[in-house]
Structures are given as structure tokens and as C-alpha cells.
Amino acid sequence: MTVFNHRGGEYLTVGDARLYYEQLGAPDAPVLILLHGGLGHIETFNAITPHLAHRWRVIGIDSRGQGMSTLGSAPLTYERMQHDVERVIEHLALERVSLIGHSDGGIVALRMAASQAVTVDRLVTIGAHWALGENDPARALYEGITAAKWSGLFAEDVARYEAINPQPDFARLLEAVRGMWLDDSEHGYPAASVGGITAPLLVVRGDRDRLVSRANALELVEQVPGAQLLNLALADHSPHETHPQWLLPVVEAFLNQ
After folding, report:
1. Domains of the chain in sequence order
2. Nearest one of 155, 107, 101, 113 to 132, comparing CA atoms
3. Hey, what long-range contacts does 1-6 have (CB within 8 A, 24 or more apart)?
4. Confidence class of residue 168 from pLDDT cuts 50, 70 and 90?
5. What's the CA gap between 63 and 145, in Å, rounded?
6. AB hydrolase-1 domain: from which residue to which, for each copy (predicted)?
7. pLDDT of 49-69, one tens digit each?
8. pLDDT value of residue 223
9. What per-residue confidence (pLDDT) applies to 155?
10. Spatial separation of the C-alpha atoms in residues 45 and 88, rounded to whole Å
């Protein structure tokens, strides 16, 4: 199997939440963990997993409350999601990992690389904020989003969530995620801590991304020694879904260095 399907995975209990994950590729291959974007799930990576699974042991984790993972009662923060991924790594006894994180998943990956609680070999972020400034255009979008608006824009995604999640409550999930998006505390965006990242970093952004500005991506690259920027023309917030044929050659070359 080379794609995620929400049928062949396992659960890890963390507090009162249950985290769902699936694995692809050879068990003895180098480990590559995929972290999806907000209100998404691991299947959003399926345009690129067939290529990655030939070289890597690919692990996809549904973030708490999303996909087939349950939300639990604790407040949702990027820090908590970081610790969730670290618990999965500990549970699987993984000594070192590489990470690809999209949007919220990229923010979690940046926090992980900055904290160095686990050994991160290489890191790719796709459409991920390192910080959310007071005047960042995304802030107004986050402030104005509601469950009804999101459902109107992404009806198929919400239907998929309601079909596979063990405890579906989209209104509650949206409010939890929205609070995380707007969290300016130390439990939120990695902010200045990205300066402590020592793992090789590839920052990917679609040039038509309305959430993550070119300036935000450049600021991230400038703060991490040796970081590289891939700004994809014609792509938007999710180039791994819309333009995998452009993204994959660069990502694979970066990971294989």
C-alpha cells in the first residue's frame, strides 16, 4: 500500500484523546513523518505518498480532533500537537525522523525542530506560518471564520470528517482550531524560537497562497541558517495536492541530500 486510506492504521491514547496514525513503506527505511494542515487529515498527502513510500518509512498522523483522531478535553494548541507527535515517535521507538508539515502541520514541525526534543534530520514546511503578526492578512480571515462559513467553502472536507471521525462535532472542532490559529502565547506559533533550528530546512510556498505571504516565508528563511525557499509559481496554499509534479522533485532531492 502506498496511500493512506483510514482503514489500516493504529491508535495511541494520549490523555483522553486517541491519535490515529498509518504507516507506509518498508519498516527498516528512514522515517518520514507527514503532518497535515488544519481541519484536514492524512489522505491530503496521497498525491505524493506513492513516490515517498518507495524510499521512506512514511508515517501519517491525524492531528487530534481531525481525521480519525479524537479531540479530547484539553485546550488545543500547537504545543499540545507537538507533544502528540513526539508521543507517537516515542511509542514507535524512533531514533530520528524527517518531517514534512503542511500549514498547521508545518507549524508543529517547526516547533519540534526548534525544541530538539527529538532528532529531526530534515524538515520541509509547506504553507506554514512561523509567526502571525498583528497585521498579517490571515489574522482577519481566522477571526471571521465560522463553522457555517467553512462548511460552505469546503463541504466535501466536512462531510469526510463527519464520516470518519469517531466523535464528530465540527462546530466544536472549528472553535478549537480557530483559537489555536489566533493564539499569540508561547504555546502557539514558534516565533523567535525558529532561530534555534539546526536541521536543514526547506520552506515551500505557493505564490498564490492567500494565507502565508511571501514576506512571512522569507522572514522564516532568513532566521534559520542555511534554510532554502521554494516559491512555486501558479500554486496556492496546498501545492502537494495541486502541483505534486513540481513539488516532488525538489522535496525528494532535498530529503536525499
Report:
1. 10-255 (3.40.50.1820)
2. 107
3. 2/49, 2/50, 2/53, 2/54, 3/43, 3/46, 3/49, 3/50, 4/42, 4/43, 4/45, 4/46, 4/49, 4/60, 5/43, 6/41, 6/42, 6/43, 6/67, 6/68, 6/164
4. very high
5. 20
6. 32-247
7. 999 999 999 999 999 999 999
8. 97
9. 97
10. 19
